[in-house]
Each structure stands twice: as C-alpha cells, then as structure tokens.
Amino acid sequence: MTSNITELIGVYDADATLLGEVSYWVGARLGMTHCSLCELTHGLFTKKSEWNQCADSLSVPFRLFHRDDAPNDVMLALAGNFPAVLQRTNEGVKIILTGDELQRFEGRTSDFAEWITEFLSRT
C-alpha cells in the first residue's frame, strides 16, 4: 500500500467557542441543531471511546476542527459545506465525506470507523 495521505481532517458544523459549544449542545437536545460528524465522534459530553480507539489505530492522524478554528486551506476546500471529512495529501486538501454521506452512518461510530479504515487501505 502506498498513499500520499498525510492526515484526515473532520470539521464539525459547530463553533469551538464556549457559547458555540453550549448553543450546539442545547440545540441538539431540543432537535434544533444537528451535526452528523458530532454524532459519530461524541457522546453526550465527551468523545466516544470507540472513536478514540479508531483514531488511535489509523495509519495517519485524524484531526478534528470546528468551523471557526479549521485551517484556511480546509475552509477553502469546504466552501461552507459543514460537516465533512477531508484528506490532506501532497497535492492539497480534498473532501472525502460530505455531510450527507456522514448522515448515512446514522451515528454508528463502528460503521464510520470501518469506512475510514477501508478507505485508507485502498489508497
């Protein structure tokens, strides 16, 4: 297997500020806000242990950002389409999972982890 992927990047459809975090948490509980990537990586208050195990086992780092703290090149690639998962290669940054595609996992972290592992094995 040869790959030029240097990292995977996930960007949440939420802000990293304290107000952003609280607003998202309350909105999600009331059914007013939704981030399919958040559902895959986080439980009620913290990251899911299942997600941590997956991220630790990957052959490349998987970095997570919010829409207000992601690097500029990531923001340009996203063009406002949150959430998403991207790959960084020697050629730049490219989306590999859109918000709609993340939604299809329906919060099943194990399925998401399996997809990522298989994706990396194919590249």
Strand tally is 4
Number of domains: 1
Secondary structure class reads alpha+beta
**How far is it from the N-terminal to the C-terminal residue, by CA?**
7 Å
Mean pLDDT: 89
Features:
123 residues; alpha+beta; four-stranded mixed β-sheet; 4 strands
Descriptive notes:
The chain is α+β, with helices and mostly antiparallel strands and 123 residues long. It has one domain. The protein has helices at residues 18-29, 36-41, 49-57, 72-78, 99-103, 109-122, and strands at 5-12, 62-66, 84-89, 92-97. Strands 2-1-3-4 form a four-stranded mixed sheet. The longest helix is centred in the last third of the chain and has 14 residues, at 109-122. It starts with a strand and ends with a helix. The model has no long low-confidence stretch (mean pLDDT 89).
